[in-house]
Design goal:
Length: about 260
């Protein structure tokens, strides 16, 4: 999601250092505006930093890149501030000011502000999502799935690569930009009716259907398709063309074999 769709804690954590870096870049560009030899390196560093900061308005996952690219600008701002304080203060005051300036431009105060306001306790639904996210990708959870005869599995987009890498099964989609058509097919299968899912199963020659209830991805299915195929499966409303695959009682998965 874009950074502005997140709560203030995430915005403060992710965007503080990039914002400080842009202020520092602006200060250094202004300082060296009449010196091309020094101006061009700063422009070369500031341009990708500005691009990364702008990408936060598209997806928050640009945060680490924006933070890394902000470091030269933040260092430049710190250098200017420390120099200004040092020239106007006693040496002891200057040392304290230098330390305070470093803390300021590093973005650490934002983390301190976050700590002053503890996050509210998670709801039961949020805790269930956390448990599913931790357990479903694990090797012990996937082992019973891997023991089934090899086949093509209709499962969540986020689990596709894990399934392929750790079992002998195939999946039809993974979270990759060039995998768009397959992602759309999978999303329509889980959000649509059981009959629509059956058409996808036949067209893609699917052998199994595998779900991990409460995985983060499934919250989209629940909110956008409350009567869709995934929600039906999660509620135990299984169509006749699927037969259950026996998994251990403590398995976080539910699995079915397609009847032919």
């Amino acid at each position: 999601m874009p950074i502005y769709n997140h709560g203030w804690r995430t915005v403060l954590t992710v965007a503080t250092l990039p914002a400080i870096g842009l202020v520092g870049y602006a200060a250094m560009l202004w300082r060296h505006r009449r010196s091309p030899a020094q101006l061009m390196p700063w422009i070369s560093a500031a341009a990708p930093a500005l691009l990364a900061m702008s990408l936060l308005l598209w997806q928050t996952r640009a945060g680490p890149a924006a933070q890394l690219l902000a470091v030269p600008g933040a260092a430049g701002l710190g250098w200017l501030l420390i120099g200004w304080v040092w020239r106007r203060s006693h040496i002891a005051v200057g040392l304290l000011a230098a330390a305070a300036t470093f803390l300021l431009v590093s973005g650490l105060p934002a983390q301190y502000v976050n700590s002053l306001f503890p996050a509210p306790p998670k709801t039961a639904a949020a805790r269930a999502v956390d448990i599913a996210n931790r357990t479903c990708p694990t090797l012990p959870a996937l082992r019973p799935v891997a023991l089934q005869p090899r086949g093509t599995v209709l499962t969540h987009v986020d689990l596709g690569p894990r399934l392929i890498a750790t079992t002998h099964h195939n999946a039809i989609a993974g979270p990759y930009h060039r995998n768009g058509a397959d992602i759309v097919a999978l999303m329509r299968a889980f959000r649509g009716s059981a009959d629509e899912a059956r058409r996808t199963v036949e067209r893609r020659r699917i052998d199994y259907v595998l779900i991990c209830p409460n995985l983060s991805e499934t919250t989209i299915y629940r909110s956008e398709a409350p009567k869709g195929f995934y929600v039906q499966l999660a509620k135990g409303q299984v169509p006749a063309w699927l037969e259950p695959v026996e998994l251990p009682a403590n398995s976080p998965y539910r699995m079915w074999r397609v009847r032919r």
